[in-house]
Design goal:
The chain is of the alpha+beta class. The chain contains 5 helices and 7 strands, in the order αααββαβαββββ. A 4-stranded antiparallel beta sheet has the order 3-4-5-6, with helices on both faces. Helix 2 packs antiparallel against helix 4. The chain is rod-shaped and about 105 Å long. About 15% of the residues are buried.
Length: about 230
């Protein structure tokens, strides 16, 4: 039998109970920290890779829309005859039939410039906010991941200012013949608002809208013809 002194010593010894909870809790916290760190690094890399990709896609998309809007606006007027040579230019002749002057209908020119400008701006406005999809692999980075993975959608808003200007050009068309061309220059400045960034691009388009061949000397007088 144990003596009273030995019994007291045994009762004073701490009793340790190992539940295993502390070790498991620390492991879970470590895994969660590593996972959060990996997600943070992936997000930072994705944002760095996203900006140039999204900028290029948004610029190309906006330029295509603007170019198409310019062509549509001009083609509509070519189809209805509004941009015919005779409707824009009046040839003045002397008694012998020689052309002495070219006169431009400036009221009509100004109206056409304003209409084409407004139609281009309206077309860009109707685009509103384009939705682009960038493959996840492009965002993560790496050539072997390019174009792979699901598409991540992004919204891009475009704002535009436009100007149109008629010009004329003369070129030789043969012996004692000169070709007179009427061209329209359309310039559109586009501001592209993207997530975290704004970029700008300019679209310039020159379209031949009317021409004629002048037989004889080219007149020295171009009334209202810039």
């Amino acid at each position: 039998m144990l003596s009273r002194h030995e019994l007291k010593l045994r009762l004073r010894k701490p009793i340790l109970i190992h539940t295993g909870r502390s070790h498991k809790g620390n492991s879970k916290k470590t895994v969660a920290f590593i996972l959060a760190l990996v997600l943070l690094v992936t997000a930072l890399l994705g944002l760095r890779n996203l900006q140039p990709i999204l900028t290029e896609m948004a610029t190309v998309t906006s330029r295509d829309i603007v170019t198409q809007a310019i062509n549509d606006a001009i083609n509509r007027r070519l189809s209805d005859g509004t941009l015919s040579y005779d409707s824009l230019i009046t040839l003045e002749k002397d008694d012998s039939g020689a052309i002495t002057a070219l006169t431009t209908d400036m009221a009509k020119i100004n109206t056409l410039q304003a209409e084409i400008t407004n139609e281009v701006i309206d077309a860009v406005s109707e685009m509103g906010s384009a939705r682009l999809r960038v493959p996840l692999g492009n965002i993560i980075g790496g050539s072997w991941l390019s174009g792979r993975g699901p598409g991540i959608p992004f919204k891009v808003v475009s704002l535009a200012t436009s100007s149109a200007k008629f010009e004329n050009a003369f070129e030789s068309a043969g012996i004692n013949q000169t070709k007179h061309k009427i061209l329209i220059d359309v310039t559109v400045d586009v501001s592209i608002l993207m997530p975290g960034k704004t970029t700008k691009t300019q679209v310039q388009s020159q379209v031949l809208v009317a021409e004629t061949v002048i037989v004889g000397d080219v007149p020295n007088s171009y009334v209202n013809l810039q």
